[in-house]
Amino acid sequence: MIKQHQGLPWVPYREIEAEQAAPGVQRRILAYGKDAMCVENTFETGSIGAMHSHPHTQVTYIISGKFRFTIGEETREVGPGDTLLKENGVVHGCTCLEHGVMLDFFSPMREDFV
Length: 114
Hints:
Layout: E1 19-22, E2 25-33, E3 36-43, E4 48-52, E5 57-71, E6 74-78, E7 83-86, E8 92-107
Antiparallel strand pairs: 1-2, 2-3, 3-8, 4-8, 5-6, 5-7, 5-8
C-alpha cells in the first residue's frame, strides 16, 4: 500500500490506506504536492470533526451524507454537492448527522497529515 506519495502524478485509490482521524472518522490522503492536498474523510453518523483552525485554506466538497458544520460564527446543515470554504485561521468543525463522505482540498498541503 502507498504510504508516501507526495508529488506522484497517479495515486490509485485502492492503494491508499485509511487511517483513523477521530472516533468514527477515517481519513485517506489522496494526491498531493507541496502547494495542494486532496483528502477523503468518511464519517459515521454521530462522529465529530472537532472545532479547530489551521494556516491553510480549505475547500470541502460533500459527496454523501448530511453534516452540521460551523465555520466561524455560522452553523448550517450541508449535504451532497455542497461546498464550503474555510479561510486560513478560521475556526471550523462538524457533526455528522448521516453517514457520509467528503473531500477536502488544502493549500498549501497539510504537512501534519503525512
